[in-house]
């Protein structure tokens, strides 16, 4: 067996002593670094299988997200809100918006719930007197969840106890300062709350 130079042996010994620490850091990173991604995938899977999911969010409130076709007029809340992850999803839910209306939504700096006339061809979800409520969610975690699902979801506070999932991420529509606006397709704006 060849002799290992003293300097090389010292380096190998240092690596061997440090490696358990590096392995432990790697494991911790994998567990906590991927938690959000794994949680989103699990939520999306449950939504696709069952059509609704209950989540305890960072404020400690329990919310329910559901596929619009699963919303029931007899048992679900009429004050429920459609959640969108991008501006162009508005076209699915409402009449054709003007550039002015789209700009109002795009440049909103705080979480905002919009009340708008429903698209005459859209029938699923909470529609009350020809109007819907929607919000474009910009907060990273919730936007990623909506994006991963790929279509609008409906949000309502949960009446049922016991969450399917828990996250430390604050749901933006439960924060202080949420505004509510009436927004017509032509760009007419009326402040309802805020």
Describe what this molecule looks like in 3D:
The structure is a single chain. With 194 residues, the protein is α/β, with parallel strands linked by helices. The protein is built from 5 helices and 9 strands; from the N terminus they run ααβββααββαββββ. A 9-stranded mixed beta sheet has the order 7-1-2-6-3-5-4-8-9. The protein is elongated, with a radius of gyration of 24 Å. It starts with 5 loop residues before the first helix and ends with a strand. The mean pLDDT is 85.
Show the helix and strand layout.
Elements: H1 6-33, H2 35-50, E1 52-56, E2 62-66, E3 81-84, H3 90-93, H4 99-106, E4 112-117, E5 131-136, H5 140-149, E6 153-157, E7 165-166, E8 179-183, E9 189-193
Parallel strand pairs: 1-7, 3-5, 4-8
Antiparallel strand pairs: 1-2, 2-6, 3-6, 4-5, 8-9
Helix pairs in contact: 2-5
Q: What keywords describe this structure?
A:
single chain; 194 residues; alpha/beta; 9-stranded mixed sheet; 5 helices; 22% strand
Quick recap:
The chain is of the alpha/beta class. It has helices at about 5-35, 35-50, 90-95, 100-105, 140-150, and strands spanning about 50-55, 60-65, 80-85, 110-115, 130-135, 155, 165, 180-185, 190-194.
| Separation, N- and C-terminal Cα atoms | 79 Å
**Which strands sit side by side, in order, in the main sheet?**
7-1-2-6-3-5-4-8-9
Global structural class: alpha/beta
Order of helices and strands: HHEEEHHEEHEEEE
Number of helices: 5
Number of strands: 9
Major β-sheet annotation: 9 strands, mixed
Q: What value does the Rg take, in angstroms? A: 24 Å
What is the 3D form?
elongated
Instruction: Give the low-pLDDT segments.
Output: none
Overall mean pLDDT stands at: 85
């Amino acid at each position: 067996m060849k002799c290992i130079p003293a300097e090389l042996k010292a380096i190998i010994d240092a690596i061997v002593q440090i490696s358990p620490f590096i392995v432990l850091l790697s494991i911790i990173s994998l567990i906590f670094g991927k938690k959000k991604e794994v949680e989103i995938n699990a939520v999306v899977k449950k939504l696709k299988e069952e059509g609704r999911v209950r989540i305890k969010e960072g404020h400690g409130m329990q919310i329910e997200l559901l596929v619009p076709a699963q919303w029931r007029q007899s048992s679900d809340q009429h004050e429920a809100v459609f959640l969108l992850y991008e501006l162009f999803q508005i076209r699915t839910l409402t009449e054709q918006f003007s550039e002015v209306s789209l700009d109002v939504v795009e440049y909103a700096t705080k979480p905002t719930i919009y009340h708008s006339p429903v698209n005459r061809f859209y029938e699923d979800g909470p529609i009350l007197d020809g109007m819907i409520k929607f919000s474009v969610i910009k907060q990273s975690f919730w936007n990623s969840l909506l994006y991963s699902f790929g279509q609008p979801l409906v949000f309502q506070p949960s009446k049922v106890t016991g969450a399917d999932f828990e996250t430390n991420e604050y749901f933006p529509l439960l924060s202080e300062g949420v505004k509510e606006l009436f927004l017509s397709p032509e760009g007419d704006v009326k402040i309802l709350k805020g």
